[in-house]
């Protein structure tokens, strides 16, 4: 009978040994990339905050999309939280084909990008791209975009004879300039149509609606998009504990709207914004840290809560 307990004891020893080292030392430095967009600066800041609390040493690199993918392929980067699909399909295609960049999973659904109007304009009957023509004078035959070079889809709508927008002007300035116009028009209860997207703090700062009818230009479902987490080939196997965190780490539009507001309205750094978001909404940690430990194998949830003062 005493020999029957040997396999069980050996199994317990093996389990204890594996639990004591969640990831090898080579995984301590986690190299993340982001392209300088506020949504990805915030989500990367959240990831950095959690990784630091788990004993890792996250590093961020601000790079263009093309350089991010080349760096992942060359193993100079480990993680990218910002694959927007379908907008970035052409960038990802060659790396998907050769298998050098792997998709972990979707971390955000419900993203969108199309025309927006204040709620009172929508309630007045401007609910679709086709409704713009009938209200042209109230809009002053103007629509507001962001930086020059980023409004081609808006210019395409003006040029489309089916919409009857001949003579409309696309006012190009900047994201901040456009939102200043939105705020001014809303204060005066005037009509305005502008580039709108989510996630973005505009969705919580103003009561806005998205117009239907733009599928030809922005795609279906209000220019719907998903955002996914990607890693260099083999990273999930090399660093399975970080990999588990990346699989767990999903966001939602409201959370990102608030977090981007910490960056844009309060001037916080990405890591400070990430920390504030986690302290404000600690209930998210249970799901994000399920089956995740510190790099040394201790319970991850305890370490992160302690680091955040929770």
From TrEMBL:
Residues 1-21 form the signal peptide. Residues 29-276 form the ABC-type glycine betaine transport system substrate-binding domain. InterPro entries: ABC_choline_sub-bd, ABC_Gly_betaine_transp_sub-bd. Transmembrane segments: none annotated. It comes from the Bacteria. Keywords: Signal. It holds the Pfam family OpuAC. The keyword Signal applies. This is Choline ABC transporter substrate-binding protein. The gene is choX.
